């Protein structure tokens, strides 16, 4: 009997031992088997009838590829051929006249007319012709190369040699830089915001866009498309919504994301009866609850010539414009408008639009612009 009890006890102990072993081994069993990295040439792990997956079979993540914008340095020089219409009228026209054997009063008058047709404006034209006349007389210019050098120098002086054209887009300690983009409808504000976002991204900055044009829903879509190509988020609101609130939110979002720059696109027209200038004034006031706006860019269409300058004055009275973006210079022979705009508004041209392509916006440089207007040496 005792033997029987001992035997039952041993059997029970054995059963418990087996169960304990089972339980403690379970987690090990639950872990996935370590992945065997197949060795090159070793196909033993793959059953012979299973097709080996190739790189093409593996689905790739579907995040859209971002554009890599062109570098911004030297853009104006690279895009100089876009100014060919102005080049023909202004540069070649002036050379042809000044290269004449005899520079009499009639010729100088023609020089003046050429400059006036380029939309340079009366005052700037008279000053430039005065300086050219004097130098040609005093220096006794003979060779086309000397003439070119003088013309270039005086043109650069007229365009503005030491003008500060830097865009204030660097962030502050606690908030991004804010750039407000204003102008009449159709001048190229949204396009400029998009192109400028690319310029900044190309320079290694992070950008948030604010779609404060609520006149039509498509305006926000247009801006968002530009932004998404370079990974810039667009803050938008409902059609007909309050532009000032969207602009405010865009800056708030820029702060949250620790972005470098917030670009705010505005409308050229409004739904409400409030004047556009009142509305822009409100956008400015509300945005500035975050801190002062760093740059207010006025976008002007170069093909509208002096009319554009007249419109521009209204904007400069409503918001403190700090720089002009002159768009569509590729579509006009009147490159002299750069000079007129600066003189009449007292605001530097900081960027120029030279086409509809995404990277057709160039930082403005007086020397490169004068070179572009004067064309190649071959034009002599
Ligand atoms: N050729 C040329 N076209 C340009 C340039 N900049 C803008 N455009 C074109 O001008 C048209 C109007 O541009 P938008 O950016 O929509 O103008 P906007 O000022 O935002 O217009 P609204 O939103 O209606 O006030 C578009 O077809 C642009 O492609 C430029 O530098 N050269
Ligand atoms: Mg627009």
Chemical compounds bound to the protein: guanosine-5'-triphosphate, magnesium ion
Q: Give the count of helical stretches.
A: 13
Summed over residues and divided by their number, the pLDDT gives a mean of 84
Main sheet strand line-up: 3-2-4-1-5-6-7-8
Strand content: 5-15%
Which radius of gyration do the C-alpha atoms yield? 34 Å
The description of the largest β-sheet is: 8 strands, mixed
How far the N terminus sits from the C terminus, by CA atoms, comes to 128 Å
| Secondary-structure-derived class | alpha/beta
Instruction: Say how many strands there are.
Output: 8
Spans of at least 5 consecutive residues with low confidence: 16-48
Q: Helix proportion of residues, in percent?
A: 40-55%
- Name the shape in a single word: elongated
* SSE topology string: HHHHHHEHEHEHEHEHEHEEH
Describe the structure.
With 380 residues, this protein is of the alpha/beta class. It has 13 helices and 8 strands. The protein has helices spanning 2-30, 75-78, 84-98, 105-117, 122-139, 144-159, 189-202, 217-229, 243-256, 276-287, 305-318, 337-345, 366-374, and strands spanning 177-182, 207-212, 233-235, 261-266, 295-301, 323-327, 349-353, 361-363. Helix 3 (84-98) runs antiparallel to helix 4, helix 5 packs antiparallel against helix 6 and helix 6 crosses helix 13. The structure holds guanosine-5'-triphosphate and magnesium ion. Magnesium ion binds next to helix 7.
């Amino acid at each position: 009997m005792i033997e029987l009890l001992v035997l039952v006890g041993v059997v029970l102990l054995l059963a418990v031992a087996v169960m304990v072993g089972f339980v403690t081994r379970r987690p090990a069993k639950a872990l996935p088997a370590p992945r065997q990295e197949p060795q090159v040439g070793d196909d033993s792990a793959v059953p012979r009838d299973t097709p080996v997956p190739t790189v093409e079979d593996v689905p790739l993540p579907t995040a859209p590829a971002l554009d890599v914008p062109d570098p911004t340095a030297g853009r104006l020089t690279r895009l100089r051929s876009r100014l060919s219409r102005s080049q023909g009228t202004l540069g070649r026209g002036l050379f042809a006249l000044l290269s004449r054997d005899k520079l009499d009063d009639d010729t100088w008058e023609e020089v003046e007319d050429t400059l006036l047709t380029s939309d340079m404006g009366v005052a700037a034209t008279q000053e430039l012709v005065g300086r050219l006349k004097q130098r040609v007389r005093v220096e006794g210019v003979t060779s086309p190369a000397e003439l070119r050098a003088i013309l270039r120098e005086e043109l650069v002086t007229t365009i503005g040699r030491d003008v500060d054209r830097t865009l204030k887009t660097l962030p502050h300690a606690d908030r991004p830089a804010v750039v407000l983009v204003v102008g009449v409808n159709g001048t190229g504000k949204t396009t400029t915001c998009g192109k400028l976002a690319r310029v900044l991204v190309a320079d290694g900055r992070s950008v948030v866009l604010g779609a404060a044009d609520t006149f039509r829903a498509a305006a926000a879509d247009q801006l968002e498309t530009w932004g998404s190509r370079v990974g810039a988020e667009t803050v938008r609101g409902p059609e007909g919504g309050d532009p000032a609130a969207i602009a405010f939110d865009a800056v708030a979002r820029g702060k949250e994301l620790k972005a470098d720059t917030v670009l705010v696109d505005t409308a050229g027209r409004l739904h409400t009866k409030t004047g556009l200038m009142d509305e822009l004034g409100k956008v400015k006031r509300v945005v500035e609850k975050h801190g002062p706006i760093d740059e207010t860019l006025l976008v002007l269409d170069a093909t509208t010539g002096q009319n554009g300058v007249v419109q521009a004055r209204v904007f400069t009275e409503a918001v403190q414009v700090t720089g002009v973006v002159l768009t569509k210079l590729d579509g006009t022979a009147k490159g002299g408008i750069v000079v007129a705009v600066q003189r009449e508004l007292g605001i530097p041209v900081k960027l120029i639009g030279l086409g509809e392509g995404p990277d057709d916006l160039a930082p403005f440089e007086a020397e490169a612009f004068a070179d572009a207007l004067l064309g190649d040496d071959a034009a002599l």
